[in-house]
User: Which sequence fits this backbone?
């Protein structure tokens, strides 16, 4: 233990204070969901970071995810040959995102579809939803969509499709926040492959982050937009709504096609956004050269680093590393977490960030908290219920703030429970 663990604890309280200041109605705040969320997050982290959890459940989760990732790589190796071989493998050409990480999305999308077909996924979602509903006293619909987001992405909206039309403003805000504060299982493997060279047990950490992010999403959602109405599904358990395929083969085909669509979306987004960021940096470079005769170079990354520096320090990162950590966390809002995880891997490889900072940042990045995701989730809801467009638009930006605060809290929780002796960080 070190005093940085204490800073992470103060950081959690600081993030809650920020959310309280940004709340649209402080008088309507209910503190029970906040305290319940903190207790649940601490219990999850305390167990997984403990010697018992770290040597049993955590190791089992990590090994299981890695086994699935290795199975997913079989198809990529067959199709792409040496291009699909990761660093350290004989004949590898180095890490290539397109041919090594992205293809795993197809496999995991198909696997999730199969689990839904057999009813396993819907059982897990209902189980988590019941826990959230009883613990947080949230409505059945928003509890269900939050639970769904632990496993899937935009598809979580469809699980509550029959209830979207009658959702309150606060419920819609929770749906958006939970969607952006968590990550889908089918892209988790992408981050694992990106960081596996730096952290041997990163798979278990990211699963841990996904679990912690769900209660964090509810905490900040209800702080920024408290419930002031009577939700239709309050006090009831809502069953997930989804269209079940007629056969196992159809489930595999449907999941695979969804995975391919997701890959095309990620590739297109990265090509467009990274190109636009580079264009902005060229303009900023020209501007800084004109203002300072080239002695100071301004870039979007530098600006984001300074903006997020205080938040990086707040969640427990050493001040001498907080600028780089803040840049990586901040750029996620623009370039998505896919690019940010790549930059985190580079920072860890060249020693810019130490292991503690790397762990905190990896937890803080574990969410779709960026503008592209906001457009996807908001667009998805309004496409299903166009009459809710005005309400969704009114809470959309607040949801993005809530999601980022939730992700930062997830990082702070990791910082609170991290010790240099923890078995979870032995890799």
Assistant:
């Amino acid at each position: 233990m070190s005093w940085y663990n204490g800073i992470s604890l103060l950081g959690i309280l600081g993030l809650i204070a920020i959310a309280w200041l940004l709340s649209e109605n402080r008088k309507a705040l209910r503190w029970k969901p906040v305290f319940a969320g903190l207790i649940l997050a601490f219990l999850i982290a305390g167990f997984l970071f403990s010697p018992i959890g770290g040597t049993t459940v955590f190791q089992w989760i990590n090994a299981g995810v890695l086994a699935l990732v290795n199975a997913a790589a079989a198809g990529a190796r067959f199709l792409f040959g040496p291009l699909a071989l990761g660093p350290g493998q004989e004949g590898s050409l180095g890490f290539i995102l397109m041919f090594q990480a992205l293809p795993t999305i197809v496999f995991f999308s198909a696997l999730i579809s199969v689990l839904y077909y057999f009813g396993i996924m819907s059982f897990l979602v209902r189980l988590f939803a019941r826990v959230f509903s009883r613990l947080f006293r949230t409505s059945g619909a928003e509890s269900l969509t939050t639970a769904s987001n632990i496993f899937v992405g935009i598809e979580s909206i469809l699980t509550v499709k029959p209830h979207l039309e009658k959702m309150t403003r606060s419920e819609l805000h929770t749906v958006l926040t939970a969607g952006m504060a968590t990550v889908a299982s089918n892209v988790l493997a992408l981050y694992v492959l990106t960081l596996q060279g730096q952290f041997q047990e990163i798979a278990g950490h990211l699963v841990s982050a996904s679990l912690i992010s769900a209660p964090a999403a509810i905490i900040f959602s209800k702080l920024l937009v408290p419930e002031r109405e009577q939700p239709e599904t309050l006090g009831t358990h809502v069953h997930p709504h989804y269209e079940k395929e007629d056969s196992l083969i159809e489930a595999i085909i449907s999941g695979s096609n969804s995975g391919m669509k997701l890959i095309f979306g990620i590739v297109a987004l990265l090509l467009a956004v990274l190109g636009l960021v580079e264009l902005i940096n060229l303009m900023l470079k020209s501007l800084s050269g004109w203002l300072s005769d080239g002695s100071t170079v301004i870039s979007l990354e530098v600006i984001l680093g300074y903006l997020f520096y205080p938040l990086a320090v707040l969640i427990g990162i050493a001040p001498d590393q907080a600028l780089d950590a803040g840049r990586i966390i901040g750029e996620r809002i623009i370039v998505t977490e896919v690019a940010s995880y790549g930059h985190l891997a580079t920072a860890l490889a060249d020693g810019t960030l130490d292991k503690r900072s790397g762990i905190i940042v990896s937890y803080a990045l574990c969410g779709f908290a960026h503008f592209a995701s906001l457009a996807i989730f908001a667009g998805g809801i309004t496409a299903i219920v166009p009459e809710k467009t005005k309400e969704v638009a009114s809470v959309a930006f607040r949801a993005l703030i809530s999601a980022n605060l939730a992700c930062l809290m997830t990082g702070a929780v990791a910082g609170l429970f991290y010790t240099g002796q923890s078995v979870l960080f032995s890799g």
Confidence is low (pLDDT under 50) at residues 423-427. The longest helix spans residues 248-292. Residues 3-425 form one domain. DSSP finds 18 helices and no strands in the chain.
